[in-house]
Each structure stands twice: as C-alpha cells, then as structure tokens.
C-alpha cells in the first residue's frame, strides 16, 4: 500500500506540472494589457509598467515565465494580485468559504442522494422508484443556474426561510441553500447510481446466500447488498468533487458568496492573471489529491482491487 | 396451524425458538409442490406437483437437465425464491411435520441456515466479495446464536479446519477471491454446516470445479453427512457424481418426478425412457468403441409443456397415448416408481 | 437429431418470440428491444423536432425574432405572441425557436469532436500499450484534472476578443468543451478496447496477419464503441447545459446572438415580475437536455438488459 501511494504521488508530479502549465498558458494568453486599469483613470507611468513587467517576468518567453512561477510556487509563494495583496492570504480566506460550501454540498449529496437511491432500489418499479427516477431526471435536465435563481426567488424571497445572499461571514445557515443548489445535480446522479447498483446487487448470488443463511432481509439488503453498492457511489462522489468546485463559480455568483469561484471569476474579468493562476492551481492540486484519496479508499472498500 | 403440529413433538426452548425433532427419522416431506413463474411472456410452470421425502442420515439425489425444476425445488425448500415472480399455488413442504410454507416469516428465517442449509454451485459469486471468509462464517454464529465477535471467529477457524483448509488460522481474514475454486467451495460448506443443520441441500456443488477437485469435494460432503447424520439433498445433472454418494435418486423432467429408485436399482435397470437415455449418454470404459447415444432435442419450454407425457416429443418409445394422457408416477416394482405408460417394458428391456 | 426434436425446437423458438441462435447479432437484438421502448421513441421524436428547429427555424414561426415591439415589452403570453414578449419587446416564441440552433450546434459538434478525439486517443493508448499508453494516459490525466466548466471559462477568457462572430463564438465554445471533454471518453474507450483485445476474434485476425489498421477498424472499434456512444449521447445534453452556463456567466454567446442561454440570462433579473421570460427558454433547454439523456439511457438499456 505504501509503495502504491508513493508511485501515485510520483505519477502526480508530471500531471501537476502539465496542468498548471496549461492553466498558466491560458491565463496569460488572455488578451489585453495586464497593467491597464491598475493606476485608476490615468495610464500607468512608464516606470511602474517596467517594474510590474519585471516583477512578473512578463518580458521572458512563456515557458521561462512559467518556470520562474513554479520555482516560486514550490516555495509557497503565489505572488501578489493587482491590489498588492498576497494571493496566498486571499486564497486562505476564500478557500475556507468554498471548502465549507463544497463539504456541505457533498454532505447533502451523500445523505439525500444515497437515501433516495436506496428507497428507489428496494422498491424497484413501485411509486417511490418512479418518483425518484422522474425527479432526478428533472434536476439533471434543468441548468444549475436556473435552479439557483428559482431557489433564490421561491425559497429565499417568497418564504424567507433562508437568506437570499451570503454575507462575508458565510455562516452555516447562510450557506444551506447554496449548498443544496450546488449539490443538486450530484444528488440526482448519486441517487441514480445508488439505485442502479443496489438493484444489480440485490440480484447477486451472495445476497441469496445471505438469505439462505437465515439473515433478516434488512441485514441481507442493508449490509450485504448495500456495502457492495456503495463502492462505485463513493468513487463517483470523489471524482465529482472537481465538478463541484467548478460549479461553485456559478453558485457563488448567484448567491454573491465571497469564495474561490467568485475570486477566479473576478480575476478573469479584471485580467488579474496572478490571482487566477494561483486560485486555479490550488484548486487543481486539491482535486488531484482528492482523487488519490478516492483511489486509495477504493482499494480499502473493495478488497478485490489490489494496490500492490 | 394444521393438525400435523400435534403429531410432531415440538418443544419451545426458553428464548421462544422452536426445537425441531423429526418423527420416526423423517426430516422433510415435500407434498404435491407447484411453483410458477409469472413473466411478461406468460406463466412458466417450473414445478408441477412434486412429492418426495428425506430421512435422517439419508442422501437423496435429484437429477435432471437445466430447466427440469431441480434447482427451483431446492430454492422452494430453502425459501429463497423471489416471490414475485415466483408463486407457490399449491403444495406443502413439511420440516419435522411443520409446513414451512405456512410458517410465519420470522419463524421460517430461523429454520434457514440453522435447520436447513444450502451450498450453491458458484462459490465465488455466492460468497460476498467484500467481507473476509471468516467473518462470513462467523456471521452464522453471531446472528443465530448471539455469539460475540471473538468466539464466533474461533468457531469459524474450527470449521475451516474441519473442511481441511490449510493454515485456517491465518486465512480466516482472507477474502473469497484469494482462494482457489475448491477452497472456496470448502468455505461454502463450512458456512453451511456451521450450525449443525439437519438437512443440507447441495445445488450442483461441483459443477464449476475441476474433475479432481470435484471428487475431493464430494468425498468431504459424504464424510460430513455420515459424521453428522444429516439428510443430504444433492441436486445435479451429473450421473457420475451421484453414484458414490446417493442412497436414492429422484429424476426430474419438466417440473415433475419421472422416476424414483434406490441408486443400485436405477443404475442397473432404469424404469423410464428418459433415465435410460441419461444412462446411455455416459461414456463407459467397458463399452469402448460404441457410439454414445445422446437424447435428441431439448427440454420443453415451460411456458408450453406438451400435453400428455412431457417427454413424448423426445421419446423413442412414444405412442399415441403418450401424446394425450399424462402418466402418473406409480409404483412399478418394490421401492421404485416411474411415470411412464410403458414403465414395465422399459424395465424388462 | 430426430424429427420431433426439431419440432420442439421450432415451438420453443416461436415461444421465445422470433429467431433464436447466433444468427441474431447484438446490434439487431438491441434494436429489437429499443423499438419497444417508449422512452426511445419520445426522445427520438423530440430530438428530430429540435434538429428541424435548428436547421430550418422558419418552418416553426414566421415572426422575425429581431423585430422589437417596444411598447409591448414584457407582455404576458397572448394570441399575438404565444410566449409573450421579452424586455426588448422581442417575440419570445420566435426567439426560442431561433435559439435552438446555437444549443444544437454546440451539443452536436462537441459530441462529434470529443468522440473522434477521445475515441482515437483511447484506442491508440490501449492498442499500442507500453510507453505510448503511459504517455497518453498521463496527458489524459492532465486535461482530466481541470474541471469542465472552470477550464471552459479560462479558455473562453483566453480567446476573448478573437472570433467574435456567431459561428466564431460557437466554434470557441465547441473547442473549449472539446478540449476538456475528450479525456473522459478517452479513458472509457481505452478500457473498452482493453476488454475487447484479448477476444479470440482479435487474436485470430492478428494470427492471420491482418494489418493493425484493419484489426482496429473492423474488429476493435465496432465491438468497443458501445459504452462511448451511450456516454456521449448523455454528454451531449450536458454540453448544451454547459454552453448555456457560459452564456449565463457572460463569456459564452452574448447578445445580439439569439440563444437559450442568453435569453435565460436576460430573464433571470426579471424573475419576480416576468417569470414567463425565464420559463420558455429554460423549458426548451431542459427538454432538449432531457431528450438526449433519455435517448442515452434507452440505448444503454437496449444493449445491457441487466441494468433495467
């Protein structure tokens, strides 16, 4: 197992380098003068422009720029953004908010999605099953930003159950509705995946054996079949984490959340390359580590998968 | 509950569970069992009135092609048929005089595994892939006997040793896929005999195994059966497997018994053309050079079983009566029955 | 075999409802069960209608979608304007009809490109094996590590200011989604090809000296592409939703281009007072996405009866 983790970490190095280069390339290929708009209404002074360009190695060819960036990154230096604030400090605050949002979305996704999937799976072909199948299809087919806007209006404005926007404190209560919206698509997928796997496993020979052993139906289904059905579901939740972080851009915009998604989006609009690259790089690295974690967990959950 | 209750001496032990005691050594009485499967294409009549019995220490082989209803019979006895689509419109399955089919669910559950246990054909898919084998054996003791984790695991090791799994203590935490086919089937057997069941049903226990391993598993089953005086029901399509182990043989065709006899009589002189066909299709060393006689055609579609004798379209001896009148299973010689209009002729041939 | 046995077999075959045996291929079998599926027919008819709408919008409406009737702006649905009018006084029905083209173009083109790119790369990796496989798999990982929406936003930002015409923007969106969408199909194709490779018919073709290209074309691809077709049909819906999301964020299609995403973005602000402006474009978008998901599900069920 230890060997496997080391090998995976080594494999991750070229992937991180490639991915960050790709991001770096896309961000700094953005058209426009990066120093435009940095000095208020007036154009910047020649001296400032020169200083800025030197500081960000803008006169070097892109691969060299990238090399210098990675060298700094390796020391934990993500540079400073347009306002002279360290990107690292910004990101720490922002990632706390988005992390909270994403974890809440995953919690909702796992609890609601799996429960709905189990209900549908054990009552296959019955009313509950059809209800789950139809409602998840609805959720999947409606774009997240429409769901977000509808939730904001009907739950936030009309009933006043939850706040319409999220303050900079980003409390648990404020994030409840955004987390539901962010996780909505994944809830639907988790429910369907759980159902499909459970239905398939309920027909498995080992469930028949469990019944033949004199176990209760509850134990045969709830332990023997479910334990096997959870393996692909947990894998999905892990890989879905990346989509969740990407989706945060939309959700954070709708609910005005001060998270990473908003930060990246604002950075793109303001042509603040340093901020965008830092935020996206951090996001991708987190995502890659989550994937590694899921792969390791997969081996633990399914003893047939060998990591040797 | 029916009058049979009083005929069999059942006692309730302190925890409310029933202790089952066979009357005159009789463990199992299957009476006029019918099983149907309700499918989109119609009603498939898988079992159409099967009756047999099983005594303590006795081994009964149920023989038949796939689709003959032999596995369905076993599953009906175990109570592991999926209902629906399966339905049991008629019949009784009495264990120690008590009808399992009318028994409350929770009572029947304690019969499964503890009183009547079963071994399946494919041990790899029948064992749960994500739990260690020891854990799966120990689950029997934890669920039925309320035993704690360490005691039940010790019992699992003891059973694994009994079925001759080498280094049982070390392998108790291994997973099913880490064993060979033969070893996996031994684990299935250990799990089935864990609670000393009175009846053991083995559904094609050796079909998925190599020939040499087959012999070892059959020898183990026979040994355990004699050691524990279990009633053994052996479901198979393989006449070769049956000869050494079974006392009696029941031959099934299209959901009915077509012949029952003790093993020596049946091998010496079959009383049904179908049984004769089966015997003729075994290669024999003493008849080298002769062409093997296969039974032509296929078993009938259970959605439309032909009228008269179900075997008539494949039978070399079929006459007009076979296509109109269904032959009843009747005694054709002492201790043996056949469902053929011409059983005596077959027997004398 | 005796004559009676033949009779029995014949009766059986009839009972089974048709021809039995090797003569019936997997594809024919799947088509037979597909024909019986109501979901298939509903989705196929819907998709056909949307395709017609995209190719030939004037078939569905004679109203000019760019004709603004300002004094009737935001009017509710009426006989004159079936779906009402939007903030500019445009006829919403006409705009919804004309908006289909952008979504269908993005969905279909992205699907075609991801299938070609992902399929080719996945097949190459699996067939070549060895270092080619390792290299290609790492490259796939690099692109896979960037979440679809996030990467598409960066890509669009990087190319902002270029290709601003209708087809230019659509082409950019297609490129962005293709660039980030191919890795999942490449992984899928690689694993299905790996499953097909050890089969006897591939080994036999090799032993007979067939060229690699011939083996791939006539033995591997036909047998390995099933899962990819199913997934990419479902993905088509997801790409349409992604295009709308980019438009919602203001970096996909922008006015004056007519598209569902643009219409939805315009309407969200007025959700409170003029919900009909949001309803109709969202409805069309969702039904399109739904149709492709249903089609994908139906095809999968037809090929894999177990999953029902």
Automatic annotation (TrEMBL), chain A:
Keyword Acyltransferase: no
Major location category of this protein: membrane
Localisation: Cell membrane
Membrane-traversing stretches: 9-28, 101-119, 131-155, 175-193, 274-301
Membrane topology field: Multi-pass membrane protein
Keywords per UniProt: Cell membrane, Membrane, Transmembrane, Transmembrane helix, Transport
SUPFAM superfamilies per record: MetI-like
Domain ABC transmembrane type-1 span(s) in chain numbering: 95-298
Family stated for the protein in its record: Belongs to the binding-protein-dependent transport system permease family.
Name of the molecule in the record: ABC transporter permease
Organism in which the protein naturally occurs: Nostocoides veronense
UniProtKB/TrEMBL annotation, chain B:
Superkingdom assignment: Bacteria
SMART domains referenced in this protein's UniProt entry, alphabetically: AAA
InterPro entries noted in UniProt: AAA+_ATPase (IPR003593), ABC_Ni/Peptide_Import (IPR050388), ABC_transporter-like_ATP-bd (IPR003439), ABC_transporter-like_CS (IPR017871), Oligopep_ABC_C (IPR013563), P-loop_NTPase (IPR027417)
Residue ranges of domain ABC transporter in the record: 28-279
Similarity section: Belongs to the ABC transporter superfamily.
Organism encoding this protein: Nostocoides veronense
Listed name of the protein: ABC transporter ATP-binding protein
Keywords: ATP-binding, Cell membrane, Membrane, Nucleotide-binding, Transport
Subcellular location per the Swiss-Prot or TrEMBL entry: Cell membrane
Subcellular location, principal: membrane
Gene3D superfamilies: P-loop containing nucleotide triphosphate hydrolases
Molecular function GO labels: ATP binding
SUPFAM superfamilies: P-loop containing nucleoside triphosphate hydrolases
Record has Membrane as a keyword: yes
Membrane topology reported for the UniProt record: Peripheral membrane protein
């Amino acid at each position: 197992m230890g060997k496997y983790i080391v090998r995976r970490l080594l494999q991750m190095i070229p992937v991180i380098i490639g991915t960050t280069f790709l991001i770096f390339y896309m961000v700094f290929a953005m058209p426009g003068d990066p120093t435009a708009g940095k000095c208020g209404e007036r154009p910047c002074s020649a001296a400032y422009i020169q200083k800025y360009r030197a500081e960000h190695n803008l006169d070097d060819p892109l691969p060299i720029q990238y090399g210098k960036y990675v060298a700094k990154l390796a020391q934990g230096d993500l540079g400073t953004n347009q306002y002279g604030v360290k990107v690292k400090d910004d990101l720490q605050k922002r990632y706390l908010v988005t992390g909270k949002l994403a974890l809440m979305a995953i919690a909702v996704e796992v609890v609601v999605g799996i429960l709905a999937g189990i209900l549908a799976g054990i009552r296959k072909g019955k009313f509950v099953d059809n209800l789950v199948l139809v409602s998840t299809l609805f959720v999947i087919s409606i774009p997240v930003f429409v769901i977000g806007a509808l939730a904001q209006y009907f739950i936030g404005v009309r009933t006043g159950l939850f706040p319409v926007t999220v303050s900079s404190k980003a409390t648990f209560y404020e994030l409840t509705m955004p987390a539901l919206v962010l996780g909505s698509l994944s809830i639907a997928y988790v429910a369907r995946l759980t159902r499909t796997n459970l239905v398939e496993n309920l027909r498995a020979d080992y469930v028949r054996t469990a019944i033949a052993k004199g176990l209760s139906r509850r134990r045969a289904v709830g332990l023997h079949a479910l334990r096997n059905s959870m393996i692909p579901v947990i894998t999905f939740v892990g890989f879905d984490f990346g989509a969740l972080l990407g989706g945060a851009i939309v959700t954070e915009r709708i609910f005005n959340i001060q998270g990473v998604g908003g930060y990246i989006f604002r950075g793109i609009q303001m042509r603040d390359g340093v901020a965008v690259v830092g935020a996206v790089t951090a996001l991708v690295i987190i995502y890659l580590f989550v994937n590694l974690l899921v792969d390791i967990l997969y081996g633990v959950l399914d003893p047939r998968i060998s990591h040797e | 509950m029916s009058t049979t209750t009083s005929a069999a001496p059942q006692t309730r032990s302190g925890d409310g569970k029933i202790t089952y005691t066979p009357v005159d050594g009789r463990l199992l009485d299957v009476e006029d069992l019918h099983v149907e499967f309700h499918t989109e294409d119609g009603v498939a009549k898988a079992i159409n009135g099967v009756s047999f019995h099983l005594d303590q220490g006795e081994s009964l082989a149920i023989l038949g092609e796939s689709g003959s209803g032999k596995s369905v019979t076993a599953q009906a006895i175990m109570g592991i048929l999926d209902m629906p689509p399966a339905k049991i419109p008629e019949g009784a399955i009495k264990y120690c005089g008590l009808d399992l089919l009318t028994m409350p669910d929770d009572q029947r559950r304690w019969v499964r595994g503890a009183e009547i246990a079963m071994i399946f054909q494919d041990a790899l898919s029948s064992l749960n892939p994500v739990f260690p084998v020891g854990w799966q054996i120990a689950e029997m003791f934890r669920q039925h006997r309320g035993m704690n984790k360490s005691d039940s695991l010790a019992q699992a090791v003891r059973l694994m040793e009994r079925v001759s799994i080498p280094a049982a203590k070390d392998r108790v935490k291994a997973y099913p896929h880490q064993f060979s086919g033969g070893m996996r089937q031994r684990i299935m057997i250990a799990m089935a005999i864990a609670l000393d069941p009175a009846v053991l049903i083995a559904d094609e226990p050796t079909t998925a195994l190599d020939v040499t391993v087959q012999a070892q598993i059959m020898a183990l089953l026979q040994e355990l059966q004699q050691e524990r005086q279990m009633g053994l029901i052996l479901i198979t399509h393989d006449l070769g497997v049956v000869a050494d182990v079974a006392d009696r043989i029941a031959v099934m065709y299209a959901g009915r018994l077509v012949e029952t006899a003790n093993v020596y009589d049946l091998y010496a002189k079959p009383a049904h053309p179908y049984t004769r066909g089966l015997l003729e299709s075994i290669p024999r060393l003493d008849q080298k050079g002769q062409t093997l006689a296969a039974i032509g055609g296929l078993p009938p579609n259970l959605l439309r079983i032909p009228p008269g004798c179900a075997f008539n379209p494949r039978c070399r001896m079929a006459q007009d009566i076979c296509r109109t009148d269904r032959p009843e299973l009747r005694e054709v010689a002492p201790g043996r029955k056949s469902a053929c209009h011409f059983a005596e002729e077959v027997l004398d041939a | 075999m005796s004559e009676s046995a033949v009779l029995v077999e014949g009766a059986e075959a009839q009972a089974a409802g048709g021809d039995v045996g090797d003569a019936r291929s997997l594809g024919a079998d799947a088509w037979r069960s597909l024909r019986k599926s109501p979901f298939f027919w509903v989705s196929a008819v819907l998709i056909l209608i949307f395709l017609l709408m995209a190719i030939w919008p004037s078939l569905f409406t004679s109203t000019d979608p760019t004709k603004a009737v300002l004094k009737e702006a935001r009017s509710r649905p009426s006989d004159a304007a079936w779906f009402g009018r939007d903030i500019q006084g445009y006829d919403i029905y006409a705009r919804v009809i004309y908006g289909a083209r952008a979504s269908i173009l993005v969905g279909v083109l992205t699907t075609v490109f991801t299938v070609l790119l992902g399929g080719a790369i996945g097949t190459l990796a699996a067939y070549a094996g060895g270092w080619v496989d390792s290299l290609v798999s790492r490259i796939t990982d690099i692109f896979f590590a960037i979440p679809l929406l996030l990467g598409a936003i960066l890509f669009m930002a990087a190319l902002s200011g270029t290709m601003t015409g209708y087809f230019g923007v659509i082409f950019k969106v297609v490129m962005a989604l293709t660039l980030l969408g191919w890795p999942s199909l490449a992984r899928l194709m690689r694993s299905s090809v790996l499953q097909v490779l050890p089969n006897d018919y591939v080994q036999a073709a090799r032993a007979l000296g067939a060229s690699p290209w011939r083996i791939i074309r006539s033995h591997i691809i036909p047998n390995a592409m099933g899962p990819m077709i199913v997934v990419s049909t479902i993905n088509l819906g997801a790409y349409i939703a992604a295009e709308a999301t980019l438009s919602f964020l203001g970096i996909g299609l922008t006015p004056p281009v007519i598209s569902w995403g643009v219409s939805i973005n315009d309407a969200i602000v007025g959700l409170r007072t003029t919900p009909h402006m949001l309803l109709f474009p969202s409805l069309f978008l969702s039904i399109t996405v739904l149709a492709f998901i249903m089609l994908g599900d139906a095809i999968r069920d037809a090929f894999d009866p177990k999953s029902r």
